[in-house]
Amino acid sequence: PPARVAARPPRFAAALIIAMPLAALAFYLALGSPEYPDQPLAARPDAVANQEIDALVAKVETHLAQAPDDGKGWDVIAPIYAKLGRDADAARAYDNALRLLGSTAERENGFGEATVRLNSGTVTPDARAAFERAAALAPNDPRPRFYVALALGQEGHKDKAIAALERAGQPVVRI
After folding, report:
1. What are the helix (H) ranges across 9-168?
2. With bands split at pLDDT 50, 70 and 90, how would you rate the model's confidence at 157?
3. Which of 154, 77, 165 is nearest to 119 (CA)?
4. Which residue, among 72, 146, 154, has the nearest Cα to 112 in the 3D structure?
5. Side-chain-side CA neighbours of residue 37 (13 Å)
6. Which of 46, 117, 156, 166 could make a disulfide contact with 87, Cβ separation 3.0–4.6 Å?
7. Do residues 94 and 111 make contact, with C-beta atoms less than 8 angstroms apart?
8. Which among 63, 112, 121 has a CA at the least distance from the CA of 91?
9. What is the spatial distance between Cα 4 and Cα 1, in angstroms, rounded to a whole number?
10. CA-CA distance, 132 to 147, in Å (whole number)?
11. How many Å from the N-terminal Cα to the C-terminal Cα in the chain?
C-alpha cells in the first residue's frame, strides 16, 4: 500500500496565510519607504563597495597631500589607482614610490604599464626604461620583456621584437 502523507492541520495553513503578509508588512514599515526609488538587488553591493573604496582613496589622497614624502602611501595607492583605471594618477604614484622607496620589479612594471595605458598602448621611452629595469630585477617575469619587445616592434624593429618575444617565452607565429 502507498505511504500516507500526513496532512497539515487546516489551522496551521490558515495561520501561515495570515502570518506571512503581516510579517512582510512589519518588515516594510520598519525598513522600507515608498520614497526610495527601485534599485536592482544585484547593483546594491557594488554601489556600497564603490563608496567605501572612494572614501578610502580620498582618505589616502588627503594624507598624501599633507605628507607627500610618504613613500609607503604612494606605494599602496598606486596599484589601486591602476585598478580603478586612473592611469595618470597611477603613473604619478608609482613614480613617487620609485623616487622615495627605490626600484623594485613591481614598482617599475606598475609605472611602465600605467604609462603605456595612459599613452594608448604606446611604450614611451620612460616606460621602456622602467620595463628594462624590471626585467633586470626579475629575470623570470615575462611582463617587462613583453613590453620591451612591444617597444621594439613599435620602433619598426620587427626581427628584434620577435627575438625578444621568443626569449620572453611568448609563442610567435610567423606569417
Report:
1. 10-31, 43-66, 71-83, 87-101, 105-118, 125-137, 142-154, 158-167
2. very high
3. 154
4. 146
5. 3
6. 117
7. yes
8. 112
9. 9
10. 9
11. 76
